[in-house]
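Throughout this chapter, every protein is written as a compact record of paired, labelled lines. The reader may check this reading against the record printed directly beneath this paragraph:
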Amino acid sequence: MKNNFRRYAALFIVFQIFAVLFSGFLISFYADSYDGSYNSTNNITNTFSDICMPLFAFFCSIEAFILVAVMFRGIYSKRASDFYFSLPVKRGAWFNADFLFGVISFAVSYAIFCISSIIVINSNMLRQFRFVNLEAGCFLKYAFMSFTALIVVYTVFVMCAVIAGRMWQYILLSFISSLALYAGAAGFICYLNTVYGFWLNLENSYIASAVSLAFSGISDFSVLKFFLAAAVQFAVFYVVGYLSFKKRKAEVAENKLSGKLLPIVLTVTCFLAEIFVCLGIGNEVALSGRIIAAIIMVSVTALILSAVFFRKAFSKPVFISLLGAVILSALTIFSVQLIPEKIYVNVAPEADEIEAVSIYDYNALGSSDI
């Protein structure tokens, strides 16, 4: 750990300087947009947290992406990889030291943001906040939730870094792993909602992805549901990253992805996300059209993933992943089509029971907006 602070001291200092500057920018931005309509302590605490906390998490996630790339860049070179892995340091200790350095760095950044926000707003330095204050306890709770979500995002980046054989594989893996779970969950829910009379809140898809947890309005989440989702995701990504780093082979550097099963799981997740996004377009497009769009999208993606991850036009792992995704999607479509629709005859009241009828959204007759 001490060695990490010596090696990355300059990067650590730069991150904290930017944390100070960005904290000042967020406070100034909120002050300029504040019109006095939220004039209670609870309201301003919630609105400030919902607007500024996701932006600060996004800023820190960019830092996390850069930090992970810097810390693990040595394992992408065969010569450097052989040198590092020959050192008398256990891989598990190396992994944990790098991981904890990032956690400490972001904890300091969040502390800077929280302290500066509370001092500036509660000290009445700005005339816009002369009659309101941040409720410190509630604000720190939201900050801890945001920090927790950021650490999950950071863990995803670390997992992707130790699996990748090249830097650009890490970049693509991070993009896929960050967005695929949320996109797939959102698409799946939208597809379920195409069934007439069935409705599932799209906000349920937020808990499926670390990115959606970090970049959403933090005060809207149930605390128990939030921490449960974050804990499960953190445990999965951390364990996968830790074990992948310990078992990483030297020939992975400058080559393909590490492992056999994990690349298949990741590519299956990517394919399923694309398929569910296409299926969730809505009833405005026929089911056959949505299926055709999904086939085209996953076919193009399969070629890209084969070229990037396995340096082939079409590879066996990608083919297995595509086949698995197609089978799972077919089973999903079949199951959804079996959901009984709540037809008009079953849900309409008797004629003498109707006092008035209002339609709020004519184009979404199957939704709960009626």
